Amino acid sequence: TNKRKALGRGLSVLLNDDNKKINIGNIIEINVNDISSNPNQPRSNFKNESINELSKSIKELGLIQPITVKELNNNKFQLISGERRLKAFRLIGLNTIPSYVRKANDIESLEVAIVENIQRDDLNVIEEAKGYQRLSQEFGYDHEKIAKFMSKSRSHISNTLRLLTLPQDVIGLIEEGNLTAGQARPLIGMPNASEIAENIVKKKIAAREVESLVQKKKGGKRSKKIEDPNISFVRNEIESKLGLSVEILNKKNNSGKIVIKYKSLDQFESLSKLLKS
């Protein structure tokens, strides 16, 4: 009980005036009811077990790291990072939480949330991909810029984004932890991806064995001809930009067509916006 009462007391003494003006960049105590969730939060799943464990830790040791918020109007705040900590405080029943106040627009809020979660391994790969997708679609980041910002390779960004082209039921298996990204990646572009995914989960097929399984599903047939390296390079570039599966059919007279494959209405709308811009 003493530990619980002592939580954040040093800040409360310094900031005991409720009408004290907020200074951007300061750490202050803010009423939990005055903090709204971050609409740009890339993580959608918060396990109750994890929140409960964090709550017990906070009761015993206090809050090690303040949450980060930005100030809105009327002395209200919006969370930038630390949603698990905020949920834990509310679960415990504490009224105020130490908070770092910073200036941040929507893109900065999303950046901070993604960076914090990825660095803490809090995001599953689909949530990570959706975070990258938002940076790309809403804020105009290309794959190169995302890779540089996140200190990841460009191929990692592109491969992660391509997972979103899988059927929703396969994406669900990844989110639930029943299917790994390594197991799912060979299924991209497969017409029977859902069926194969169920088989992988049922038989517990290792990622290294999935490639041969997919090849068997294709009938063991490879492409009728080897793709021109220049065409392969362009196709990979387009796929990296779009995060979608692309097929380039080039004839001997250098005429042909480019086929862009999408798996959902959201992907179709996003592609339409890109083509119209």
H/E series: HHEEHEEHEHHHHHHHHHEEH
Number of helices: 14
Q: What is the SS-derived class?
A: alpha/beta
Stretches where pLDDT is under 50 for at least 5 consecutive residues are 1-24
Task: Describe the global form.
Answer: globular
The portion of residues forming beta strands comes to 5-15%
Biggest pleated sheet: 5 strands, mixed
Average pLDDT, rounded to a whole number, is 78
CA radius of gyration is 23 Å
How much helical structure, as a percent, in the residues?
40-55%
Order of strands, widest sheet: 1-5-3-4-2
Distance between the termini: 59 Å
What does the oligomeric state look like here? single chain
Q: Say how many strands there are.
A: 7
Summarize this structure briefly.
The chain is α/β, with parallel strands linked by helices and 277 residues long.
Describe the structure.
51% of the residues lie in helices and 13% in strands. The protein has helices at residues 2-6, 9-14, 48-61, 83-92, 106-119, 125-139, 143-150, 154-162, 168-175, 181-184, 193-203, 207-217, 229-242, 265-276, and strands at residues 27-31, 35-36, 67-71, 77-81, 96-101, 245-250, 256-261. The strands form 2 sheets. Strands 1-5-3-4-2 form a 5-stranded mixed β-sheet. The termini are far apart.
